[in-house]
Amino acid sequence: MLPEPNRLHRARDFSVAVRRGRRMGRSDLVVHAVVRDEQDIASTVRGPRFGLIVSKAVGPAVTRHRVARRLRHICTDVIGELPETTDVVIRALPGAATSSSADLSVQLRSGLKKLGLLEAPKGPPS
């Protein structure tokens, strides 16, 4: 489960990330990310925050909730790798309904790398 301080709740936060942030499209996801300004950071906010947009185009309610649960789980794995002042909004596309969790994870990480928020994976130790 995604910790409470790492969630986007307000519509204003979503719109700032989508409108002012940079965007990277993948086959089943669109990743929007913005680095918060110092004045936008509430004193209680620690770490990156994530928001999900899973529309009815993805499928019926059961499918949308399954996709959202998968994405929240993937976000918990990425929290420690992102800068603390980052807001990320993930918009699921209809193909996300049939994608595996591993595929969604690869697409999210790929989008964040292209946006310059994640470092390239390090190879095995020599």
Automatic annotation (TrEMBL):
EC number from the UniProt entry: 3.1.26.5
Catalytic activity, as annotated: Endonucleolytic cleavage of RNA, removing 5'-extranucleotides from tRNA precursor
InterPro entries: Ribosomal_Su5_D2-typ_SF, Ribsml_uS5_D2-typ_fold_subgr, RNase_P, RNase_P_CS
Keyword Phosphoprotein included in the entry's annotation: no
Domain of life: Bacteria
Assigned keywords, A-Z: Endonuclease, Hydrolase, Nuclease, RNA-binding, tRNA processing
Keyword set includes Cell inner membrane: no
Top-rank EC class of the record's enzyme: hydrolase
A molecular function GO annotation: ribonuclease P activity
Quaternary structure and interacting proteins, as annotated: Consists of a catalytic RNA component (M1 or rnpB) and a protein subunit.
Protein task: RNaseP catalyzes the removal of the 5'-leader sequence from pre-tRNA to produce the mature 5'-terminus. It can also cleave other RNA substrates such as 4.5S RNA. The protein component plays an auxiliary but essential role in vivo by binding to the 5'-leader sequence and broadening the substrate specificity of the ribozyme.
HAMAP family per UniProt: RNase_P
UniProt family annotation: Belongs to the RnpA family.
PANTHER family named among the record's database cross-references: RIBONUCLEASE P PROTEIN COMPONENT
Protein name in the entry: Ribonuclease P protein component
Native organism: Rhodococcoides yunnanense
